[in-house]
Design a protein that fits this description.
It is an enzyme of class 6 (ligase). Keywords: Aminoacyl-tRNA synthetase, ATP-binding, Coiled coil, Cytoplasm, Ligase, Metal-binding, Nucleotide-binding, Protein biosynthesis, RNA-binding, tRNA-binding, Zinc. The protein has about 850 residues and is an alpha+beta fold. The protein folds into four domains: about 260 residues, Bira Bifunctional Protein, Domain 2 (BirA Bifunctional Protein, domain 2); about 100 residues, Elongation Factor Tu (Ef-tu), domain 3 (Beta Barrel), CATH 2.40.30.130; about 160 residues, 2-Layer Sandwich (Threonyl-tRNA Synthetase, Chain A, domain 2), CATH 3.30.980; about 110 residues, Diaminopimelate Epimerase, Chain A, domain 1, CATH 3.10.310. The chain is built from 25 helices and 37 strands. The strands form eight sheets. Strands 1, 2, 5, 6, 7, 8, 9, 10 and 11 form a nine-stranded mixed sheet that branches. A hairpin with a 2-residue loop joins strand 30 and strand 31. Helix 8 crosses helix 9 and helix 10 crosses helix 13. About 40% of the residues are buried. Bound molecules: adenosine-5'-triphosphate and magnesium ion. Adenosine-5'-triphosphate (ATP) binds next to strand 5, strand 10, strand 11 and helix 7.
Length: about 850
């Protein structure tokens, strides 16, 4: 079975069992402070488990794009070294949200593996949770009994808390689990060591393929477990491992998921996969990492210098570095794998194909930049080698190794490798120490501690009414404290809220809640998954009241201006620049709007003017907002609504239209009722944010007015300075031209002056034991002129020794010139001499043995310089 059929068979199987096949969530997580990347299929359903939200369907199945490179689940160091852990992998899953539980989950898993996929029963093992006395958790006898119906008892193994109690993170939903492992070893090895002894022992051919998690608890910050409101099933099967098992391979990389890419890169680098450990690892790292990079970019996360973007940049660099070191790639190569991925995933993850050109461009530019850094790093390494040679040492300091790592992206093993090749060693302990210190620093900087929820009400459903009203009455459902470095805040959840939570690039609402005449300010509103969280500095005195909730209307209105203007801008950009323009990110607050989009060159001033004019035209048309809620996603797409990559859309969406022929977008934000309210737009900047991504910043409404008023004021000021000419542009032009003319004239006069001065100096040469000595106090117009003068004299006069005490436009300087032969024969050194003389003008300086200068503070010391110089020879 090829991998595409394996994936299809999984979804078909669970469809038949009443499951709804749903989309993978984006691999990059947006509204969850505890998670950067999706690390398991269950992430997107977290709110269902916690009871924050009702599931749309009770039985669901999908293939989820996962990335395990940070946080609780981090497999990065294994990847490429072993044959069954990836950074990015697909997790096939079936879910029950408060519906079926252990019995069905177990029976169906067994049926799918042994009947649909025909995996041999005598090579499968299952594990159950053995219990844990410390946590006071019992053995999962229930699961054991259900397995017994299908599996021989000696194949059902006990597993400990580490392997058989699944937790998403430090807090959150969790529960006992049952894993299914497969033994892929040859018969003779199985005869020697029974498979059950190798389960969960990190054997590359006895691996876990599926984990059935029975969600029952919520882990609190205190470490305590509380039962969830309902019981759920969450399963996750590694798609690439499953393909290995079904296709009878010994490594994930031998399946059709990876082989085309491996063969491509092997051929390109002239190696054969399977012949050499080092090049094999490099090939595996490369074909693994390009998937993580490609899918992250496709879901909107560009490589960058912080947070998730930095994780992606690091992965990319790791791949480039393996190619550079082990496969001798000195030119960009990674991006050439993107088309293969676009092709392979066209059916399940079309976002790659749709953005193929863009992804290639981004990856390529990153590669080019990193290869340049690598080169600089290698040169730095040469320098370090030289320094060590001079000191007759062979150990590269841990600090230096860390600098190479931190600044140049040289991992320790690369530094160690180059060191070895040059007969040097690295102080690895010192490196580790630096690394630990840096980690501690960033941990401290980011340290927040989120408390557990305190419930005021057992109401669960939260209603957002902010599209229709800015005021309402509401009760607090729950609250918790978040301790941060910059001070603590309290988050509260209301049963009904008019406050828009920051999302889709739109800033969150502010305002207040009021009870019993006492107001509590809402300083921000954010989303956490699907929960709307209000931030306050202090909890209201009585949390059980019914509050009047009021949104700051002015801020909301100005924000809406910017948000609607963003939609108008998006369409205008597409019509002026072309259909390749895709939104790459946006931010709207009450002050500005920022819009990032894919485009491969600078947007010219003419294009900006055209875009601005189109948008202003649409504003004046005063187009009425047409808002539709709960539109089935397919209908919305048929309407031509623009959806964004990397955005998580439910089954029903909201569509915002300003003229069906102009702007139709899927959007959850708040908007103006008619475009006239925006007033006008003014684009204030255009810049580059990353390879292939441009950014436009603009202001609207009152801010646009302020901007224009300010620009006008500047103009008036300039006019006044120019004495109110009729044509201000012409007057400025004249001013500039005149200035250029005058500068030239001054330069010419200076040259003349210096020419005359030179003649005077030449006339004053004295013979001092065969040395042509010139010592004088002079004035020159600029440091450049002084230098020019010094060099001319040095070239024209043999055996010259010259000291000039100079007044350079009011500043004291000393210049010393020594003929080359005097440097050699008499050991004279202009640098040393100038330092000595500079004391007289309270200054310092230096230079080369034949020419040096010094600047100072005391003009009156110039005569002393002359006097001192006279006695030097
Ligand atoms: P392992 O112990 O092998 O690292 P795990 O216990 O971390 O696996 P789970 O968190 O239970 O795995 O994830 C469910 C399934 O996803 C696993 O059974 C496995 O098939 C697959 N899986 C987990 N991590 C990876 C990975 N890094 N690469 C590929 N597949 C993985
Ligand atoms: Mg793991």
């Amino acid at each position: 079975m090829d991998s595409k059929s394996i994936r299809r068979a999984f979804l078909d199987f669970f469809r038949e069992k009443g499951h709804k096949a749903v989309q993978s969530a984006p691999i990059v997580v947006k509204d969850d402070p505890t998670l950067m990347f999706t690390n398991a299929g269950m992430n997107q359903f977290k709110d269902y488990f916690l009871g924050n939200k009702q599931a749309e369907a009770k039985r669901v199945a999908n293939s989820q794009k996962c990335l395990r490179v940070s946080g609780k689940h981090n497999d990065l160091e294994e990847v490429g070294i072993d044959t069954y852990h990836h950074t990015m992998f697909e997790m096939l899953g079936n879910w029950s949200f408060g519906d079926y539980f252990k019995k069905e989950a177990i029976a169906w898993a067994w049926e799918l593996l042994t009947e649909t996929y025909k995996l041999p029963k005598d090579r499968l093992y299952v594990t159950i949770f053995e219990g844990d006395t410390k946590e006071n958790l019992e053995r999962d006898q229930e699961a054991y009994n259900f397995w017994k119906e299908w599996v021989a008892e000696e194949r059902i193994l006990n597993g400990n808390k580490k392997d058989n109690f699944w937790e998403m993170g430090e807090t959150g939903p969790c529960g006992p689990c049952s894993e299914i492992h497969i033994d892929l070893r040859p018969e003779d090895e199985i005869a020697k060591t029974p498979g059950k002894d190798l389960v969960n022992e990190d054997h590359p051919l006895v691996v876990e393929i599926w984990n059935l998690v029975f969600m029952q608890y919520n882990r609190l910050l205190s470490g305590a477990l509380e039962p969830l409101p309902a019981q759920h099933v969450d399963t996750g099967m590694g798609f690439e491992r499953l393909a290995m098992a079904i296709q009878g391979k010994k490594s994930n990389y031998d399946t059709d998921v990876f082989q085309p890419m491996i063969q491509f890169i092997a051929k390109k680098s002239g190696v054969t996969y399977g012949e050499n450990d080092k090049t094999d690892i490099a090939l595996r790292v490369i074909v693994d990492h390009i998937r993580a990079i490609t899918f992250s970019i496709a879901d909107g996360q560009l490589p960058s210098n912080n947070k998730a973007g930095y994780v992606i940049r690091r992965i990319l660099r790791r791949a480039v570095r393996y190619g550079f070191t082990f496969l001798n790639f000195k030119e960009p190569f990674l991006h050439e794998l993107v088309p293969s991925l676009a092709e392979q995933f066209d059916e399940v993850f079309p976002e790659v194909k749709k953005q193929e050109e863009f992804i290639i461009k981004v990856v390529r530019e990153e590669e080019v930049a990193f290869l340049r850094t690598l080169e600089i790093g290698l040169r730095k390494m040469e320098q370090i080698k030289e320094e060590l040679r001079q000191k007759d040492e062979i150990t590269i300091d841990g600090k230096i190794a860390f600098e190479l790592y931190d600044t140049f992206g040289f991992p320790l093993d690369l530094t160690a490798l180059i060191a070895r090749e040059n007969g040097l060693v690295v102080d690895e302990a010192g490196f580790d120490k630096e690394m630990a210190e840096q980690k501690a620093r960033s941990r401290n900087a980011a340290a927040t501690e989120t408390g557990d929820w305190t419930f005021v009400n057992d109401e669960q459903d939260v209603e957002f009414v902010g599209y229709d009203m800015l005021e309402t009455e509401a009760k607090i459902i729950k609250y918790r404290e978040v301790k941060q470095k910059k001070g603590s805040v309290i988050q509260i959840v209301l049963d009904r809220t008019p406050f828009y939570a920051e999302s889709g690039g739109q800033a969150g609402d502010t305002g207040y809640i009021e009870f019993d005449g006492k107001k509590t300010s809402i300083i921000d509103t954010k989303k956490e998954n699907d929960l709307i969280v209000h931030f306050v500095k202090e909890l209201p005195a009585d949390v059980s009241g019914t509050f009047k909730c009021v949104v700051n209307a002015t801020k909301r209105r100005d924000t809406a201006n910017n948000h609607s203007a963003t939609h108008l801008l998006h369409s205008a950009l597409r019509s002026v620049l072309g259909d390749h323009v895709q939104q790459r990110g946006s931010f709207v607050s009450e002050k500005v709007l920022r819009f990032d989009f894919s485009h491969f060159s600078k947007v010219t001033d003419e294009e900006i003017a055209e875009v601005e004019s189109i948008v202003n035209g649409k504003i004046r048309e005063n187009i009425a907002l047409y808002e539709e809620r709960n539109v089935p996603i397919a209908t919305a797409q048929a309407m031509g609504a623009t959806a964004l990559f990397g955005e998580k859309y439910g089954e029903f969406v909201r569509v915002i239209t300003f003229d069906p022929n102009y702007s139709v977008e899927l959007c959850g934000g708040t908007h103006v009722l008619a475009t006239g309210q925006i007033g006008s737009i003014k684009i204030v900047s255009e810049s580059s944010v990353a390879a292939g991504v441009r950014r436009i910043e603009a202001v609207t409404g009152i801010e646009a007015e302020k901007f224009n008023v300010k620009q006008n004021a500047i103009l008036e000021e300039i006019k006044a300075l120019l004495k109110n000419p009729k044509d201000i542009v012409k007057a400025t032009q004249q001013l500039v031209e005149e200035k250029a003319k005058l500068s030239k004239e001054i330069e010419r006069m200076n040259l003349e002056k210096v020419g005359a001065l030179k003649q005077t100096l030449l006339n004053g040469i004295t013979d001092k034991d065969g040395v042509n000595q010139i010592i004088a106090k002079v004035a020159v117009p600029s440091a450049d002129a002084l230098k020019k003068l010094a060099f001319e004299i040095k070239n024209e006069v043999e055996n010259v020794f010259m000291v000039l005490a100079v007044d350079v436009a009011g500043k004291p300087q000393v210049a010393v010139v020594v003929a080359d032969n005097l440097v050699k024969d008499k050991g004279l050194n202009a640098g040393q001499i100038v330092r000595e003389l500079a004391k007289e003008i309270k200054g310092g300086g230096g230079g080369q043995p034949f020419f040096a200068t010094a600047g100072g503070k005391d003009l009156s010391g110039l005569d002393n310089v002359v006097a001192k110089a006279e006695g030097l020879l």
